């Protein structure tokens, strides 16, 4: 499986993190790590996550970008390491 590191900027809403995590799961990706922080002085959050899957990360990127509260998605790093599930 390939690991991918993603950065997501979104509006802070009670359901935003839940929607992001649901899309990750529905697209067949496993979450290896996740960190969420509020941006001081704004109504935004930054979510950094590492996901793993044999599927192309573009599938996940495309679906996360379509979420209503998501402002920006960036694939920060592509890791070609093989990991054990």
TrEMBL record:
<dbReference type="Pfam" id="PF13710">
    <property type="entry name" value="ACT_5"/>
</dbReference>
<dbReference type="InterPro" id="IPR045865">
    <property type="entry name" value="ACT-like_dom_sf"/>
</dbReference>
<keyword id="KW-0808">Transferase</keyword>
<protein>
    <submittedName>
        <fullName>Acetolactate synthase 2 small subunit</fullName>
        <ecNumber>2.2.1.6</ecNumber>
    </submittedName>
</protein>
<dbReference type="GO" id="GO:0003984">
    <property type="term" value="F:acetolactate synthase activity"/>
</dbReference>
């Amino acid at each position: 499986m390939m690991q991918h590191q993603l950065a997501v900027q979104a509006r802070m809403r009670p359901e935003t993190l839940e929607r992001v995590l649901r899309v990750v799961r529905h697209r067949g990706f496993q979450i290896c790590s996740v960190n969420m922080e509020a941006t001081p002085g704004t109504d935004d959050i930054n979510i950094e996550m590492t996901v793993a899957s044999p599927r192309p990360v573009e599938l996940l990127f495309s679906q996360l970008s379509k979420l209503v509260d998501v402002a920006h998605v960036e694939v920060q790093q592509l890791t070609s390491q093989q990991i054990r599930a």
